[in-house]
Specification:
The complex is a heterotrimer. Chain A is of the alpha/beta class. Chain A has one domain: P-loop containing nucleotide triphosphate hydrolases (Rossmann fold). Helix content of chain A is 36%, strand content 24%. In chain A, helix 5 runs parallel beside helix 6. Helix content of chain B is 72%, strand content 0%. Chain B is flat. The chains are: A alpha/beta, B mainly alpha, C alpha/beta. Chains A and C meet through helix 6, helix 7, helix 8, helix 9 and helix 10 of A and helix 8, helix 9 and helix 10 of C. The complex binds adenosine-5'-triphosphate (2 copies) and magnesium ion (2 copies).
């Protein structure tokens, strides 16, 4: 238990009454400092929910979330958010449509009452490879990849040590995806960041992550190393099926898929 | 340097794809809205009417050739002439001057209603929509109660209790007008409260009030402004209605509704006494309506 | 597919697009030529369109349905579905077509769903638009459809609001809605970008069966090159509004155009994880 992030027996219930969902069941994992941890699995299996619980967006979880050795309770101080930031899936929905890039980037600085606003915004834009001439644009004047860069800049401007990435490239085309993945890799090395990355693209996860957890129906069914993914070497049936399906579409195989 | 800019230089500056300052970004946004606004000729007419009304109100003392309350019983009920451009009323007051000075009252009412109704509606609506649950239930039930009464009746009851005056008329109009704004703001808030850009600021540790004020309210303002402009015709009509019934402005105020009411005995023989302020009300209401329609095309996000 | 089948299909295309041009005008009055001289025909097959963001893929799909802002200009020699020229239809007739003959799965599922209406009611509404059946029956149908698209507890999802669904569930709801009318032509704009590979495969199998058994035509827009190569019959590659290359899906990896090669080179693989990914170097010559 020496990780920067330690999750122990995490359970999340969402919704009320008969529509309550046990979205995350007894999930435990640990991420070391500077490591990149991948989360894959069935659609609706609770990956985003795990990230949201860690990030403080869902308050009603049970179990332990330790970050940097500190137990996270349900009520978080402002400092918590400074250390840990999240990048959302949809670059078209995650920027306020009526705020310029400048406003978007200065908002976290104001919330955390940081000084040197001007300098921080300039460096943040530089770091994600956007020139200063993007500073006063509105989101509708940016392409998908540029938006995702702004979203990453917004997360990085607080100089967090942990980034939670919820499908950061699934809405982007392959060349922009390559740009964003390169950027994330550079930032990780430069600032010794820790990532948790959710993605459906096993190639992306294998490219980015050292450790990968596979989720199904709210549970982690298997932990894999990069090496195991490379060799398609999994023990659980669900994971085997997932790895096989990632090879491409096959009508006959589709008919034989099992539900887990 | 900027003072040397030619007209087309300014245009290019406003349409620049890469604004260099926050000011330029904002102005450019406004300019783009203006460009699409001015493509609608009716909207431009509406805007002209409203601007015209404001100018008249500002320059009323210089535009009118008589004092609005100056009586001249020798000249009562004169038809339009070179001395009295739009005739005189039963007390020999110049109708042209009265209509011009009446515009100040109309604007005063419109202005007061706007600055009370908009913040109130936005506050109730966004709070209800954002927090949801019991807060939402309570606030929306209150809103429903106010909506359940017909507007004029509620306004009448209020003024009857509080006593007739312009200020009370404004308060009466306000309490009957805010509920739709709360509804609009709530609907807008509900559609965006789960969006990722709101989650993103939550995840930065912003307080609920900060999110409401800086992130949700700006998303509601355009539909609220559109609604407000379209409502203004109604507000003017209700104010005039209250004036007409003797429950708003009091004589000798040149309020348009009151003027119609006082002239109605002479409608058949001296038609101008009532008709002129009536036309004024009609034109101004029309102006606000046209402007509102035009703004809706430009501002309402559902249209893009 | 046999050669003979392919040849016959070439002569009786389901959809025929000839010289499609679309021009947008932005607020500032500048025009954007989003689609340039695009021609293709589609039989009862799976046609893929790939290309980088902004290359005009969605615009091609939307112009077939005339879902383009009125300020934009569409020009084409013809856009014919089963011999009917869609450009000559009135707005009303087009709406009929849109409902029954052509369906489009939009790129952005969460935006296409009404955020304040229950998911089940939205699908049921779509269903009752096409079939005269009662409420209870419609509900049963909706539950069946949700089940078909691999939603685990249809009852709950029926009552859920869009924000209570995961990204991939929202996408599957959209797909379910678009399959209801049993269209002749389905335009799917990145329909599975938020789905994991197994669910994606099952959804694609449903669409695939419609193509094979019901003779539906499919236009499949995506930037997942590997998926395209294995799922589609033919692929069009678009760059800056033009079709720069067309190839059989199975031969995508041997594509000739430098742009297509460039896209393929951007893909991350397990093997290259210690290297920087290649990005695209755009060559002005590709615009010719
Ligand atoms: N606000 C909510 N209220 C109720 N249920 C919810 C809510 N958000 C998510 N859920 C449910 O929780 C489950 C897990 O959702 P989650 O978004 O974590 O899945 P996911 O693994 O991220 O899936 P995807 O890959 O499709 O995005 C789903 O069944 C979903 O319906
Ligand atoms: N309503 C519109 N008004 C003005 N320009 C538009 C409009 N819709 C699309 N465009 C422009 O047309 C071009 C093609 O857009 P389109 O959405 O077809 O791209 P795409 O290939 O689908 O990209 P993506 O992969 O990002 O979805 C882009 O340059 C875009 O900015
Ligand atoms: Mg998710
Ligand atoms: Mg598109």
């Amino acid at each position: 238990m020496a990780g920067i992030i330690d999750i122990h027996n995490l359970d999340v219930h969402l919704g009320r009454g008969k529509d309550a969902v046990h979205a995350v069941r007894n999930v435990s994992f640990s991420v070391k400092k500077g490591e990149s941890f991948g989360l894959v699995g069935e659609s609706g299996s609770g990956k985003s929910t795990v990230l949201r619980a860690i990030s403080g967006l869902y308050k009603n979880f049970t179990g332990k979330i330790n970050i940097d050795g500190k137990v996270q309770n349900q009520h978080k101080g402002v400092d918590f958010y400074k250390n840990l930031q999240m990048v959302f899936q949809d670059p078209y929905a995650s920027l306020h449509p009526r705020h310029t890039v400048d406003q978007t980037l200065s908002e976290p600085l104001q919330i955390h009452k940081l000084d040197q606003v001007e300098k921080r915004i300039r460096t943040a834009l530089e770091r994600v490879g956007l020139g200063l001439n993007f500073r006063f644009r509105y989101p509708h004047q940016l392409s998908g990849g540029q938006r995702q860069r702004v979203a990453i800049a917004r997360a990085m401007i607080l100089e967090p040590r942990i980034l939670l990435l919820d499908e950061p490239t699934s809405a982007l085309d392959v060349s922009v995806q390559a740009e964003v993945l390169n950027l994330l890799t550079e930032l990780r090395i430069e600032y010794n960041l820790t990532y948790i990355l959710v993605s459906h693209d096993l190639a992306v996860v294998a490219y980015m992550c050292e450790q990968i957890a596979v989720m199904n129906q709210g549970q982690i069914v298997e932990n894999l190393s990069k090496d195991q993914i490379m060799k398609s070497n999994a023990t659980e049936r669900y994971t085997q099926q997932l790895l096989a399906a990632s090879k491409g579409y096959d009508r006959d195989a589709a008919g034989k898929l099992l539900q887990f | 340097m900027k003072t040397e800019k030619t007209l087309s230089g300014w245009r290019d500056w406003l349409l620049a794809e890469t604004p260099e300052s926050a000011l330029q970004a904002r102005l450019s946004r406004i300019y783009l809205s203006w460009l699409s606004f001015k493509r609608n000729p009716l909207a431009v007419i509406g805007l002209l009417i409203v601007v015209f009304l404001v100018l008249i109100a500002i320059f009323a003392p210089w535009l009118s050739n008589h004092l609005p309350t100056d009586q001249n019983l020798a000249d009562r009920l004169q038809p339009p002439s070179s001395k009295y451009w739009l005739g005189t009323d039963e007390l020999g007051r110049d109708i042209f001057s009265r209509v011009i000075h009446g515009s100040k009252i109309t604007l005063y009412i419109v202005f007061l209603v706007a600055i009370i109704v908009v913040p109130l509606g936005l506050f109730v609506g966004t709070t209800a929509g954002y927090f949801g649950g019991i807060t939402d239930k309570i606030l929306m039930r209150i809103t429903d109660v106010f909506m359940a009464f017909p507007r004029l009746i509620l306004a009448l009851a209020f003024v009857a209790v509080m006593g007739p005056s312009i200020e009370n008329a404004v308060i009466a109009i306000t309490i009957t007008s805010w509920p739709p704004y709360a509804r609009i703001a709530r609907a807008e808030t509900i559609t965006i409260r789960h969006s990722e850009f709101i989650l993103a600021v939550q995840q930065q540790g912003a307080s609920a009030w900060r999110i409401l004020l800086k992130h949700i309210v700006p998303m509601c303002t355009s539909s609220v402004i559109v609604r407000l402009t379209l409502d203004m015709a109604g507000v003017i009509l209700i104010a005039a209605g209250l004036g007409f019934l003797g429950l708003g402005a009091q004589p000798p105020s040149p309020e348009w509704g009151l003027m119609i009411s006082q002239g109605r005995q002479y409608l058949l023989d001296q038609w101008w006494v009532s008709t002129i302020p009536g036309i004024a009300i009609f034109i101004v209401s029309l102006g606000f309506n046209l402007l509102g329609d035009g703004l809706r095309d430009v501002l309402d996000p559902t249209n893009n | 597919m046999s050669l003979i089948q392919q040849i016959t299909e070439m002569y009786t295309p389901l959809l025929n697009v000839e010289n499609l041009n679309v021009e947008f005008r932005n607020h500032a009055g500048k025009s954007i030529h989003a689609v340039r001289d695009v021609s293709f025909s589609l039989g009862q097959e799976r046609l893929g369109i790939v290309g980088e963001s902004g290359s005009g893929k969605s615009t091609v799909g939307r112009s077939i349905l005339s879902l383009i802002p009125t300020s934009a200009k569409i020009k084409a020699n013809k856009i014919a579905l089963n011999g009917v020229d869609l450009l000559k239809l009135s707005e009303l007739e087009m709406r009929q077509f849109r409902g029954n003959k052509i369906s489009m799965i939009m790129q952005d599922p969460k935006h296409a769903l009404n955020p304040v209406m229950r998911v089940g009611d939205q699908i049921a509404e779509a269903f009752r638009l096409h079939n005269r059946i009662g409420r209870a029956k419609a509900k049963q149908k909706v539950l069946d459809i949700l089940n078909d698209v691999q939603i685990r507890d249809p009852e709950r999802v029926f009552r859920a609001y869009p924000h209570e669904l995961s990204g991939g569930m929202g996408q599957r709801v959209m797909i379910a809605m678009m399959l209801i009318p049993g269209p002749d032509l389905l335009i799917a704009d990145e329909p599975t970008s938020a789905l994991d590979v197994t669910v994606q495969m099952q959804i694609l199998a449903i669409i695939d069966d419609l193509v094979r058994d019901k003779g539906m035509g499919l236009i499949f827009i995506s930037h997942d090159l590997n998926l395209m190569a294995s799922f589609c019959d033919r692929i069009l590659i678009m760059y800056a509004g033009r079709i720069v290359e067309e190839c059989r899906a199975s031969e995508l990896s041997q594509a000739k155009h430098p742009y297509t090669k460039g896209l393929l080179a951007c893909l991350p693989t397990v093997e290259n994880s210690d290297q920087k990914l290649t990005t695209l170097n755009r060559d002005p010559a590709w615009l010719e």
